[in-house]
Amino acid sequence: MCPIMKSRLRPGEETAEITAPREDATVQFIGRIATPWATRDTCPRQGRQDGPVCRITVFEPWVRALEGIDGYGQLEILYWLDQSRRDLVRQNPKGDGQRYFGTFALRSPQRPNPIGTAMVALERVEGDTLVVRGLDCLDGTPLIDIKPSRCEFSPKAPDKPGAQDGPT
Ligand code: SAM
Predict the structure, then answer these.
(1) How far apart are CA 107 and CA 159, in angstroms?
(2) Where are the domains of the chain?
(3) Whose Cα sits closest to atom 13 in ligand 1?
(4) What is the pTM of this model?
(5) If one looks up domain 32-148 in CATH, what number appears?
(6) Share of the chain above pLDDT 70, in %
(7) Among 35, 120, 32, 34, which residue's Cα sits nearest to residue 72?
(8) Ligand 1 midpoint to CA 18 (Å)
(9) SS3 for 52?
(10) What is the pLDDT of residues 99-144, one digit of tens each?
(11) Which atom belonging to ligand 1 lies closest to the Cα atom of 47?
């Protein structure tokens, strides 16, 4: 068993043999997320923007990459759900042996590439740290990306000739 697969299978759940090399499409962690939740049982299934304050701290050399971020009220955060198992193809979310769903029909943290996403409200920037509300991850979860909300973002690059860009 892969060493990072930490949770147990429930009866009837199914796994796939993972054959992809671990070094394939390596993701670099660019920061860490501090939240009030130490265990999955206490962690919300989806974050709420009236939820508690969480702190996203960005590592060097990426702190300069925060330039301009204070111009946005909403950010899309991508994080690596590092405590997840990665071999589940069929899941029983309630653990009751009744209803099963394919992994891609769920927003479960257990997935082949355990990327979590959340739209958060940006309260303020404190140097290398974003103070936000709206997360749903464990304390210490690795950060993989930060993007301005699609609704607020307008392209900074020139138009692409011939491209029909959709609304920004
Ligand atoms: N909002 C994200 C999404 O939709 O992509 C994540 C949703 S997922 C259902 C949130 C749950 O993942 C939490 O309730 C917790 O049980 C679990 N979780 C949170 N942080 C985790 C981590 N670092 N590793 C594994 N599981 C985690």
Answers:
(1) 34
(2) 32-148
(3) 45
(4) 0.89
(5) 2.40.30.70
(6) 90
(7) 120
(8) 21
(9) coil
(10) 999 999 999 999 999 999 999 999 999 999 999 999 999 999 999 9
(11) 1
